Amino acid sequence: MSQHTSIEKDYVIRVHSDPSALDAPAWNSLLAAQAAPTPFMRHEYLAAMHNSASAVPDTGWAPQFITLELDGELQAATALYLKSHSYGEYVFDWAWADAYRRHGLRYYPKLLGAVPFTPVPGTRLLARDAAARTALVAAIGQFAREARLSSAHMLFGDEADRQAFAEAGWMLRAGVQFHWTQDEAAPAADFTELLARLQRDKRKKIQQERRRVAEQGITFTTHEGAAITEALWDFFYRCYTLTYQAHHSTPYLTREFFALMSAQMPQHWVMFVARREGEPIAASLIAVDAERRAAWGRYWGCTEPVNCLHFEACYYQPLAWCLAHGYRRFEGGAQGEHKMARGLLPVATGSAHWLRDERFAAAVQDFLAQEGQGIAQYVDELREHTPFKTPPVPEA
């Protein structure tokens, strides 16, 4: 179902509680026109989150997607959720929620713009032009105010997103991730050449880690797209759930989600399976975009502990695959300073936030200013300790 509201006379603005009911070709066409599209903002991916019962009201993710139309054509859209908690976001506001609670105020539900469980930077405000983007930001703010929500948040947006929110008076928050990007001036031909560009101690450590895995009789097979069989997906999902069990938590994604990915977006997945004497013992999964030559580390798990296997499965195998297939970027996911020693360099990320209570907004603004300075210094310090002999140009 959809609800109608009005914010500017030229746009028809709707709020949708069922992502799968949206016009998929129109949504994907709009996404393709953005500066930083990713597969995770495709209609199929977002609808699968809902249809697989992974991101639904019962799990604390109530969809409230906003669309703007003009003369019957989609002009802007974004994925929003009413959240009853802060799990699965990777931009942490637990302290803000606790401060509200201590003052007798309700923080949840809050409004969240994000791809559930997916801390991947990219365009969040899908818009035909700057005017539509501005109107979309206004629509988000109006929805939050009319619903009397404590706050609204947009996570991992691109530069155009952040600028639009800043112009609307939202607060910006800085973050950092670790990405590998190909040196465009002198591209590395393969993983061996990439290793040769690292400082001796980093290169030696990686070689030792890879040797330890090989000495334990571990080999890898790589499976791309439609070649990932149902049996492989079943094994991978077993590994995925074991990772959560090891941390005494519950998996965010259901098996049905990956079944939908296999059926609807097979071209966006590559699986690496670790085997001993032919029997699978671990698996890692990356998402890929062949058109943009980008890859994203996503999930992994193992059925038995093997020394250094995580590094091999999650970094070295994917990086080698990216180099072999001419990919230009591999994003290692949220957090993880240890990724620097493996050739992934710090990259700034950002989010935007609005709080209805002016007192808390002022306190959060002060906190974000201090946090932002600290993160900027942290990134500068990290870049001074590059693992490469000759530092490549950092990603913007």
Automatic annotation (TrEMBL):
Q: Name one GO molecular function term.
A: transferase activity
SUPFAM superfamilies documented for this protein:
Acyl-CoA N-acyltransferases (Nat) (SSF55729)
For this UniProt record, the keywords arranged alphabetically read as follows: Transferase
So which domain of life are we looking at?
Bacteria
As given in the record, the signal peptide range reads none
PANTHER family linked: ACYL-COA
Instruction: Kindly provide the name given to this protein in its UniProt entry.
Output: N-acetyltransferase
